[in-house]
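User: Good morning. I'm curious how adenosine-5'-triphosphate would be positioned relative to this chain. Could you predict the structure with it bound?
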Amino acid sequence: MFGEQKVCFSGVQPSGNLTIGNYLGAIKNFAEYSEKYKTFYCVVDEHAITVRQNPADLRRRTYETLALYMACGLDPEKNTLYVQSMVHEHAELAWLLNCFTMFGELSRMTQFKDKSAKHADNINAGLFTYPVLMAADILLFQTDVVPVGIDQKQHVELCRDIANRINQIYPDMFTVPEPMMAKSGKKIMSLAEPTKKMSKSDENANAVVYILDDKDTIIRKFKRAVTDSEAEIRFSEDKPGVSNLMTIYSCFTGKNYDEIEREFAGKGYGDFKLAVGEATADSLAPVQARFAELMADKAALEAQMKRGAEEASYYARRTLSKFQKKLGFVQIR
Ligand code: ATP
Ligand code: LTN
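Assistant: Good morning! Here's the predicted structure, ligand included:
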């Protein structure tokens, strides 16, 4: 809370082209909080460097991620939109929180285990302490709610543990945040391996639908999506491929699973996949058009980065300075 208003914070890494998983699991839901909450949406470039990035790509994707926030309906007048590295309090609070986070806790994080298996040649300390920086992002703004996909729930729970631990020593220091997940869309699966999360860093581009894919590409990718040997459109745990397509279709059309089953009763996977592709492409078309307009004006994006960072810094400074005081750091004004 800041004053009377509840706070919502979330972040997306500029570590690749954003997918419909990022869209349905996270960004699409961000706008829903704009009216009721004070919202901060951050492009978390400091998180992205836990995996090696090409500097030119990282810079370009930082602009793109900010533009996508806006293209997906986040009005910069109603939401604070900014880039993490432009607000130094994130990294500073992360250090302080490191001293309240246990080695054992971080060792249990499944994302660390997955990413260290995937990047065995670069298991750096940043990859290990990644959730502490994430906790700093959240706690800096005295955040009440954090909209994320289900893969980030464990990190938000660790953030809650850190906040509670600190509050026991220094009462009322941090608001303890809640993770908020979309009812459907919190875990969109890969089109090639539907038991695995769709991920922007997947090497197989056919497994992933990007927000910026054109209509033909989207339809082709859905056409190739792995399903099963039946021909029945039915939501079921033993049909992960079809169920994933039903979730995507449901998110883009607003229809529930019963309605979808009725709509495609007696029809084959071919018809269904085409309908999923068309619904996805049609829903993304306005986002893509707005994105192109925003990317054509770099100066306006930079002005937004500057303004967003100034707004965020104002709140971040207050929390950091409150915590430094509690910890016993000398403060001379
Ligand atoms: P990476 O592949 O680099 O790990 P990512 O695709 O998981 O990246 P993030 O930047 O880590 O993307 O995630 C941004 C937000 O999107 C997070 O809230 C995350 O939970 C959500 N998200 C990512 N993938 C999915 C998915 N497949 N389904 C639902 N939500 C997702
Ligand atoms: N770890 C998140 C991105 C992220 C985030 C955050 C999400 C960084 N800081 C704070 C919510 C709140 C991910 O998606 N991998």
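The CA atoms of residues 213 and 281 lie 8 Å apart. The first helix runs from residue 20 to 30.
Let me know if you'd like a different ligand tried.
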